[in-house]
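User: Hey, quick favor. My workstation is busy. Could you predict this chain's structure for me?
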Amino acid sequence: MTEIPRGFDIDAQGPLMLFDGVCNLCNGALQFLLRVEKHDKLRFGTLQSEAAAAVLEHLYAPLDLSTVVYVNAGKLYTHSTAISLLLRHHAKPGWAFLGLVLAFIPKPVRDFGYLVVARNRYKWFGHKETCLMPTPALKARFLS
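Assistant: No problem, here it is.
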């Protein structure tokens, strides 16, 4: 069993986005969110990290590198729902509206599109050999 990092309280730490740290598309999504984020409260972690494994285990969720994970108020969201909520809760108004529009598309349709991209993301966008190393300014917002 992986332990939750000392001092980490899922509910108290605020919203969290977990992503595939070697995926170029996922890293691009992270960079995009950082540019359009409205409150700078979202925290991040790579799905390959021990801290992410501990969070997922604590929430009884399997590790799945094919999805972005959004954790807020102790609840876990994946696939297209995670993207929609990330945009709605954390992006500036124009992008938040896109998240709202996504929410109106039936979940099976949204998730089908999400899974097509997820299955092909390395082929279409490439990947790195190692996970992203955050800049010193961002390091405090990443799970350690």
